[in-house]
Give the backbone structure.
Amino acid sequence: MSDTALITGVTGQDGSYLAEYLLEKGYEVYGLERWKSTRGKSRIDHLSDLKLVNGDLADQSSLDRAVREAEPDEVYNLAALSFVPESFNQPIHTGNITGLGATRVLDAIRKHQPNAKFYQASTSEIFGNAPDKTQSIETPFQPRSPYGTSKLYAYWSTVNFREAYDMFAVNGILFNHESPRRGKNFVTRKITRGAAAISLGLQEKLELGNLDAKRDWGHAKDYVRAMHMMLQQDSPEEFVIGTGEHHSVRDCARVAFDEVGLNWDDYVEVNEKYFRPAEVDALKADISRAKENLGWEPRISFDELIREMVQADLEQLQDK
Ligand code: NAP
Ligand code: G4F
């Protein structure tokens, strides 16, 4: 009999790649989807074998029902309000979904499917402005946004359920990962789409915020592979997943505009409205533990990632 997985956040960037990956591996895959009054084009339209269950991370009964219906061997909790600036506008909602939501999923598993393995989508944002040059599982946590604080609550909830109820529950502390399916407001996609639109004469300039911020950017496809690998371990443990390199927002713009034969500096303008109330200046992963204990390494470089995203945006904009 095939293994069964339940993915919350299946309509998101990672959820869609993870569903694809697990279906290719022969899993029966259920995805939790929020009810909507209309259905637009979504990232999972092409996945005809994916089974959808309606539910919301704010609603315990829908999570209980989803777990009872799917009877999963593995649960991946990827649902969240994931856009950091918006978490400052909606701090309570962010706490409810991104923080408490994880506890609700854990509690549904504890009650209905206690042997299921649980993956929590944790984040490098829990490190905030960490003192260390690279961040590992030993680095102190000091989040700088309602998103980061909520994810830290979810992190400890996951550890607590593991210790209290002997559940196989782990956090994947993932650094930024991107793809052509990335939401259009996140900085990489905003840049790649902006560069593509400018090169096609559809846009004149691109407004960004802090160009000096540095992130460790990898490809989402590499990272969903790591999520799955974490649940195939003999015993549950946390891993930091990244590339071990970081680049500035300015570097990202340079590569994206280069892909369309333009100089980024001629088109990018700084607008302070994109500055955050509290910024995370630089993040870079120490992935030695993931390499040694998990056997995971990224396969796609930063340069390849950004160029792939620009090409995908060019194609999308030309199709319109
Ligand atoms: P994403 O594209 O923003 O997807 C978020 C998903 O959560 C969407 O499917 C969304 O559904 C769903 N969702 C939001 N609120 C919900 C609610 N109340 N109930 C049920 N579902 C809800 O995020 P992503 O980039 O794929 O990231 C996946 C997870 O990894 C997130 O938890 C994120 O915080 C975390 N993470 C991401 C990164 C990264 O760089 N991408 C790094 C570290 C951690 P709708 O489609 O209905 O909005
Ligand atoms: O692309 P971002 O919005 O991603 P951020 O805040 O790092 O968060 C993402 O990665 C986290 C993992 O570390 C995830 F947990 C989280 O869910 C999300 O996926 O911004 C990256 C950097 C920031 O420093 C921001 O200030 O880019 C800077 N930036 C500069 N101009 C901008 C802009 N960010 C956005 N979104 N838009 C700008 O115009």
